[in-house]
Design brief:
The protein has 86 residues and is mainly alpha-helical. The longest helix has 55 residues. This is Cell division protein FtsL. Keywords: Cell cycle, Cell division, Cell inner membrane, Cell membrane, Membrane, Transmembrane, Transmembrane helix.
Length: 86
């Protein structure tokens, strides 16, 4: 085997090792991307559920019922209303 053949063989082996390493890194990056996509979907579902819960908690009927039950508030009687004029 000549020196040129040995150098050429070394370059082929080095190239093969780099190819395997690059493919491995690409697979790892793909798996990381898939994990992030799944996490993003879970967070999106959770966000939608929180939005629905928030909309339920701040309805006018619920706020008024809680104000009456927990705080003892009631709508003002007509004699308690004082019109404000500019």
């Amino acid at each position: 085997m000549t020196r040129f053949d040995a150098v050429l063989l070394g370059l082929v082996v080095a190239s093969s090792v780099m190819l395997v390493q690059t493919k491995h890194e690409a697979r790892l990056l793909y798996l990381a991307q898939e994990n992030q996509n799944r996490r993003s979907m879970r967070l999106d579902v959770e966000w939608r559920q929180l939005q629905i819960e928030r909309a339920t908690l701040v309805t006018q009927d619920r706020v008024q019922r809680l104000a009456q039950e927990k705080l003892g508030l009631a709508p003002p009687r007509p004699e308690q209303i004082i019109p404000w004029e500019r």
